[in-house]
Every structure is written in structure tokens, then in C-alpha cells.
């Protein structure tokens, strides 16, 4: 990604924190980023393309984090607990580092489409991680776990991520262990 794209995305996100998506114009984005409209259109078709691009970037990163840990666990099943804890640390660290994006799309101006995709990626990651570990009713376990995890993520973001990501990861990890007996 170029510096200009990063700048456009950052300024768009700042606008999105203050305005509803439908209120934001290309002119507003360009003024905030101090760029010409032609520069914006070099990278994006319109504001929908910009938002879709940002969503896909973040979901791809989350998918990559999950895939990496799923592979580690598949090759060494003895590392399930350790790798699960590391996965959660990486997951919450990523959300923390990009909290402005996640807070805006999940709490400030909730985007149902984004939330569904976000939960879908997390579910897919969990299903890959727990495959071959003979858990009772794995899909129901994952759905249950994700429901609680979403609540924790939502309120953590809503409160501007006051707790460090490691603490939130530990809370989720401990709750997962309690529910899977």
C-alpha cells in the first residue's frame, strides 16, 4: 500500500468517526487528506470501494493470523493450549493496533455487513484450530465462544481499549477453558 493510500484511509476513518458513511463525500476525504480528487480516484473507484478495501485488508490480516496458528496446531497437537493463547494474543493485539477502525465499524457506526464478515473469519479460524481435537459439538462450542467473545470485543472497543490486549486475550482464553469441559 502506498503512502497516499494510507493517508486516504486514515483521513477517511477520522471522518467516519465523526460522520455517518452516507454523509461523507469524496470532496471531504480529499480535503482532509490534502489531495486532489484525481489522486483519490487513482486508488479507489468511490467511497464504497475505499471502505470495502479497508474491510478486506483487515479481514485478510485476521485470516492470516488464524491460518498461521491453525497450521502450528495441526503439526503439533500438544501445543493446542499454548498456541491458542498465542493466537488470542495476536488477535487482540491486531484489534488493539487498529482499534479506531474496529471501534468505528462495530460501535460508533455499526456496519452489519462488516460484523458478519468479522465473525465469519473468527469462526473459520476457530474451526481450523480445533479440527482434529475431538471436542464435543465443535460448531456449537465455537458459536457459543464467539458470542461471548464478540461481547467482550464490543465493550472493550466501546471503552477505547483501556485494558491491554494481553489481558483481554487472557480473559477470553480462561473463559474458553471453562466452557469446554
UniProtKB/TrEMBL annotation:
A Pfam family that the UniProt record links to this protein: TetR_N
Start-end of DNA-binding region: 25-44
GO molecular function, one term: DNA binding
Record's signal peptide: none
Coiled coil: none
Keyword Signal among record annotations: no
This protein's record includes keyword Cell membrane: no
Domain HTH tetR-type as annotated: residue spans: 2-62
Record key words, sorted: DNA-binding
Descriptive protein name: TetR/AcrR family transcriptional regulator
Organism this protein belongs to: Macrococcus bovicus
